[in-house]
Write a structure and sequence with these properties.
By secondary structure, this protein is of the alpha+beta class. Helix content is 23%, strand content 20%. It has a 5-stranded antiparallel β-sheet, covered by helices on one side. The two termini are 45 Å apart. One of its GO terms (molecular function) is protein kinase activity.
Length: 342
Amino acid sequence: MFRFRNLSLISGVPMQLWVEYDGTNAELNVTLSPIGVPKPDIPLMSTTVNLSELILDTMYVGFSSSTCHSANSHKREVAIKRVSHESRQGMKEFVAEIISMGRLRHRNIVQLLGYCRRRKGELLLVYEYMPNGSLDKFLFGGNNQLLNWSQRYHIAKGIASGLFYLHGEWEKLVVHRDVKSSNVLLDSEMNGRLSDFGLARIYDHGSDPNTTQIVCGRKPTDPQLTTSADEGVSLVDWVLDYWRRGVVMETVDARLGCDYVVEEVELVMKLGLLCTHIVPLARPNMRQVMQFFEGDVKLPHLSPDYMNVDPQELEQYHQGFDVPFMSLHSSKMEESVLSGGR
C-alpha cells in the first residue's frame, strides 16, 4: 500500500478524492482532482489488495439497503451499510447521512466511521458495529432474550440523551424524523444508540423548522399517532385510556411480572404521552425530558384531560407549574425556565 506523509498542495486549491475497491480484481484505486473538475479516467494510484475477508457475504437486508458485518482479529468490528443504486432515495439518503452523521459525537449515537461511493452507483457507509442488533427484535420477537426493566429504562434514557444532543447541544439542530425501535441499535453493553439519519434535517439554532412531518420507512404518517394494524387503535390512545381509568400500570409488559420500579414506569408512560401531545407547544423539549429523567425537576401532576386541551386552554393548565412546556418548534424556547443555556 502507498502512504502519503505531509502531503500538501502549494497552490492551496481544494481537492476531491475518490477511493474505489474492485472486489472482482481485488484492486484499490485512488483518483484525485480539483473541486469542480470531473473525475479523471485514470486513477492517481492503484494497488492490489484482497479485502474479501473484511467484507463478508452475510448481511441484513432492509427496504433499500443492506448491512454486512466486517471483522478480523487485527481490526475493529464495523458494520457496512450498502445503499443500493436501485433505490430512488439512495443518493439522497447517502448525502443526508454523511452530512448528519459525519461530525456527530455522542455515546448514544452510532458513529459513522467512513464512507465511499463505488461504481454503478453503489454507496457504502461504515459504522461502528452494534453486536446486539436493533431494539425492535427484543421488544417484538426475533430474539429470545427478555429485556428487564432496568435495561429498558436505561435505553430510553440514553436515546433521550442522544436526542437532546441533536436538538440542543450540537452546533446545529438535527431533527432525526424517523425515531423508532428498529433505528435504535444496542452495543455490547446494551446501551441504546440512535442510528439511520437518512431522513434527518439540519437547521440553525433559533430557526423555526417544521418538524411535524415524521416519516416511517418511505411513507409519511400522522405526526401524532401510530396506528396498530391489528386493532385499529393507536398505542398512545391505548395507554391514555388506561391512564384515564387509573390503571396505567396494566399497560406494562406482562413478561416483566412485578420486576420494575413503579415510579420509573409512571414517569416513562407520562413522558411518552406528553411527547406525543396533539398540541406541539404542550410537549416538553428534550432538555426538559432529560431533567425529568435525571430527577433534577419533578414532573408536574397532570390529569389525563391535559392530553385533550387545545392551545387556548394551555395557559390555565400551566398556571402554578414551575415547568412551562415548550417544544423545539417554539420561538420562545429560550425564555423557558428549563431551556436556558445550551
